[in-house]
Design goal:
The chain has one domain: Rossmann fold (3-Layer(aba) Sandwich). Helices cover 43% and strands 21% of the residues. It has helices spanning 13-29, 52-76, 92-103, 117-123, 126-133; strands at residues 4-8, 32-38, 83-88, 107-111, 138-141, 147-150, 158-160.
Length: 161
């Protein structure tokens, strides 16, 4: 059983389903959850025709949005389930790897798609990155409730969860 679950949340429907499934897993195994999100960095290009005050406002809005995502996710977790929330100002890929090094997690739970469709097209998906770099199993959650549990280093050996 998985006892220390790292759950990536970003406010997307897929992440919401991932949280639902992570809560269920943690309840079944008397585990704990760590909810992680990252402040979306506003591309420098967005500041091209703005002043410093507007740029700061955009950055503040991005941080407020990330905090709200964590708050909303935390509010969904039952009171008797241990939960920690983490807000990173690093890019999510770096934040995930750092937390995996520090946190003694035994499972990463995340949605198959997030709010970063444009960014994913440009730099690749976060879920693909985590699958390739995670030292622990990763549960990718789809809205249609198909789940794939992929153990690192297992190649294409996927098992239904």
């Amino acid at each position: 059983m998985f006892r220390n679950l790292l759950v990536l949340v970003d406010g997307s429907p897929h992440a919401s389903q991932a949280l639902t499934d992570a809560i269920e897993l943690a309840e079944q195994s008397n585990g704990r959850l760590t909810l992680l999100t990252s402040v979306t960095r506003v591309p420098t290009l967005a500041f091209a025709n703005t002043d410093a005050i507007t740029a700061q406002t955009l950055s503040n809005d991005a941080e407020s949005y990330a905090k709200q995502i964590l708050c909303d996710a935390r509010d969904r977790v039952p009171a008797d389930l241990p939960v920690t929330t983490l807000l990173s100002r690093e890019p999510i890929r770096k934040a995930v790897l750092g937390e995996l090094e520090r946190g003694a997690h035994d499972l990463v739970v995340m949605g198959s798609r997030g709010h970063g469709a444009v960014a994913s097209a440009l730099v690749g998906s976060v879920s693909h990155f985590v699958l390739q770099h995670s030292p622990v199993p990763v549960l990718i959650v789809h809205l249609d409730k198909e789940h794939e549990l992929v153990r690192p280093g297992s190649g294409s050996g996927r098992t239904r969860a």
